[in-house]
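Write out the 3D structure for:
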Amino acid sequence: MMKPIGIIGGGMIGSQVARLAVSAGLNVIISNSRGPDSLRELTDELGPLSRATTTSELAAQADIIIAAIPLVAYKKLDADELAGKIVVDTMNYYPERDGIMPEIRTAEIASSELVQSHLHNSQVIRALNNMDWVRLASRARAADSTERSALPVAGNVKSAKRQVISLIEALGYDAVDMGPLSESWRSEPTMPAYVLPYMGEIPRQFDTVSEREWFMTAPGAQVSALYLRDLLARAVRHDKMFGSTASLAGASL
């Protein structure tokens, strides 16, 4: 029997991953910094396949753990508790939210490499970071759907990467292997594969609806594996690969 999927963080991305996992028939364990009681509304919604616990208990009970917290908190992940685990890094850098993080040097090192350095005995896999939280739920499709989209995955350990790819496929997406973590910058903020392709056509101006209303209801667009590979290949690295809460892309927080 497959162990439950652990999700650290019950915010926008963490809760959507939990919903997709439960829809796929997977058990999920969720934790956050505020304690299990703060997650009761979410677990009540998700039903019997979910439960909330402490992060220490989650780490002991799950082998694949989704880190869905602000990047500024990555050093709060306990390296000893997560030793030997597969940790899926969904975290992106948003200076307006995270503050200035001197270690972030996007032209030189991918943020996931920093996470791997901290979680030195874990197998860090970069995934589930380049799609906004609304479309992440609404664009999931069955494996035989012609409208199925793809998500990028990077990691240094092939066996761990295969397990995460299998999870992503169960959640409703194909996967495109970007290679090792050193190549994961290709899916970071401002890159061609980040958020906007999945949004579909963005109105030039918002006359009849607000930007927020459009964001919450837009159906999005398919990003096939072939198209995603092209977007990743087009990426050009620079020193300001940061997310912005002032843009539509900021809604992927």
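The chain has one domain: 5-238.
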